[in-house]
């Protein structure tokens, strides 16, 4: 009798419910091919068993090359979710489809955005940036003048303070990872370091804050500690190699690595140095979340360590038992991600995920974990650590401090902000994925 080859023989279990050691990702693809096929015999066909057939695209010339490349028509459903398509007078949001992306860079058309007064149509030839207040020499810059300053490029995330807000719900919310975590994205930003311009203007000793103001109709403005402006703040002019999109603040925005999204003021036109924060409308009302004890944070700048699984996630369907890769993104406003642990049994046991290079400070880090799903129920979780020693909280730990709603809110509501606790996805025996609390 011939012995049947075990495709998992070289795949080491590292935690409960089928999690495999991350070094399995470095092994031969043939191992995974065998593992994947084990779920349903004959689902994978050898290359020599069936000849390739020519599709119509192989029998005729293709179409003309467009001047600006666009995705295949077969990818038409890979789009942002917009919540104000008629542009009625209120905020508008577009959420990133994390469940349809890979890597760490968010394509420009899919980068999340929030606009408080629509997208302004700014003529770059007329736009100017003013730096004034407590400086020795007020300065005015046109776009052309800024182009002559030294540029730098850095990859980093931007996240709305209200990202993941539905997870303050007292009950699980059945929505996609796009709806729950889609107000975070990551891009390569290129521009002029703000410290260069402030040095030229000459900062007066009493200056402690800077008030950044946009040129959009609401004149959104935020107070930023001057120390941040002198540290790693950038006047961003390019996003992933091209001029930043109108939805991202064309022709220039303030980029504050690791700080909540609205502080990265778009359509930037003014930076005023002051001794005190402005306590502007947006920072006093919209972005001052109330705590369970009735008090509120005066300021909450930092986006803290966080991770979530994008594959699989709600909306995905596991078609058969066997090998699957669990993957997601982790990030921290304080620096690099140092570790991501993954669980397939609701937190009873954990295995360390592989971090895909590059692992950059204040940027998305893609993590991957090999998993052999046996077709039974599973609860998938990820938990991240950063280089400052911060650990992503469990939901119970988070709720004890920040509270939760008394009834489920609408998925688009913002009952509070700065949610960074563990997210749990349940996989049922049919391969469906849904949100749970575990």
Could you explain the architecture of this structure?
Mean pLDDT is 92; it is low at 39-43. The chain has helices at 29-37, 143-146, 177-181, 194-201, 226-231, 281-286, 395-402; strands spanning 13-15, 19-20, 81-82, 92-95, 113-115, 128-133, 139-142, 152-159, 184-193, 209-214, 221-225, 234-239, 242-243, 253-255, 268-274, 306-311, 322-331, 337-343, 351-352, 354-355, 365-373, 378-386, 424-427, 433-436. The chain contains seven helices and 24 strands. The protein is mainly beta. Helices cover 11% and strands 28% of the residues.
Count of β-strands: 24
Largest sheet: 5 strands, mixed
User: In one word, what is the shape?
Assistant: globular
Helix content: 10-25%
Strand order, main sheet: write it out: 7-6-15-10-11
**Helical stretch tally:** 7
Proportion of strand residues: 25-35%
Features of the shown structure:
single chain, 438 residues, mainly beta, 5-stranded mixed beta sheet, 5-stranded antiparallel beta sheet, globular
Fold blueprint:
Layout: E1 13-15, E2 19-20, H1 29-37, E3 81-82, E4 92-95, E5 113-115, E6 128-133, E7 139-142, H2 143-146, E8 152-159, H3 177-181, E9 184-193, H4 194-201, E10 209-214, E11 221-225, H5 226-231, E12 234-239, E13 242-243, E14 253-255, E15 268-274, H6 281-286, E16 306-311, E17 322-331, E18 337-343, E19 351-352, E20 354-355, E21 365-373, E22 378-386, H7 395-402, E23 424-427, E24 433-436
Parallel strand pairs: 6-15
Antiparallel strand pairs: 1-2, 3-4, 4-5, 6-7, 8-9, 9-12, 10-11, 10-15, 12-13, 12-14, 16-17, 17-21, 18-19, 18-22, 20-21, 22-23, 23-24
């Amino acid at each position: 009798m011939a012995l049947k080859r075990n495709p998992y023989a070289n795949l080491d279990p590292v935690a409960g419910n089928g999690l495999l050691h991350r070094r399995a990702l470095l092994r031969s693809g043939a191992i995974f091919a065998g593992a994947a096929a084990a779920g349903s015999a004959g689902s994978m066909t050898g290359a020599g068993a069936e000849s390739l057939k020519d599709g119509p695209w192989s029998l005729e010339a293709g179409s003309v090359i467009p001047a600006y490349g666009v995705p295949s028509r077969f990818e038409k459903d890979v789009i942002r979710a917009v919540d104000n398509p008629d542009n009625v007078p209120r905020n508008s949001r577009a959420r990133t489809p994390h469940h349809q992306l890979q890597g760490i860079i968010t394509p420009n058309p899919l980068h999340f955005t929030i606009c408080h007064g629509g997208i302004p149509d700014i003529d770059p030839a007329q736009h100017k940036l003013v730096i004034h207040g407590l400086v020795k020499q007020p300065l005015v810059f046109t776009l052309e003048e800024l182009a002559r300053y030294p540029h730098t490029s850095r990859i980093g995330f931007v996240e709305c303070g209200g990202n993941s807000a539905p997870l303050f719900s007292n009950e699980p919310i059945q929505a996609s990872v796009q709806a729950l975590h889609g107000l975070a994205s990551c891009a390569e930003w290129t521009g002029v370091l703000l410290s260069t311009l402030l040095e030229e203007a000459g900062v007066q000793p009493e200056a402690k804050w800077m008030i950044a103001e946009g040129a959009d109709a609401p004149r959104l403005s935020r107070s930023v500690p001057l120390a941040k402006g002198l540290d790693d703040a950038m006047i961003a002019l390019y996003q992933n190699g091209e001029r930043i999109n109108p939805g991202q603040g064309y022709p220039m925005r303030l980029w504050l690595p690791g700080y909540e999204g609205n502080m990265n003021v778009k359509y930037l036109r003014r930076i005023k140095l002051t001794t005190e924060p402005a306590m502007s409308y947006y920072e006093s009302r919209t972005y001052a979340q109330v705590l369970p004890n009735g008090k509120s944070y005066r300021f909450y700048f930092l986006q803290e360590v966080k991770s979530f699984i994008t594959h699989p996630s709600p909306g995905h369907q596991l078609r058969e038992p066997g090998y699957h890769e669990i993957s997601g993104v982790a990030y921290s406003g304080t620096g690099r991600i140092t570790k991501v642990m993954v669980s397939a049994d609701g937190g009873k046991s954990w295995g360390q995920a592989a971090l895909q290079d590059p692992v950059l400070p204040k940027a998305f880090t893609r993590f991957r974990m090999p998993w052999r799903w046996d077709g039974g129920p599973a609860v998938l979780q990820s938990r991240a650590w950063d280089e400052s020693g911060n650990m992503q909280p469990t939901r119970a730990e988070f709720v004890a401090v920040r509270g939760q709603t008394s009834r489920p809110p609408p998925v688009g509501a913002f009952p509070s902000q700065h949610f960074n606790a563990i997210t749990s996805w349940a996989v049922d025996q049919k391969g469906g994925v849904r949100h749970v609390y575990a």
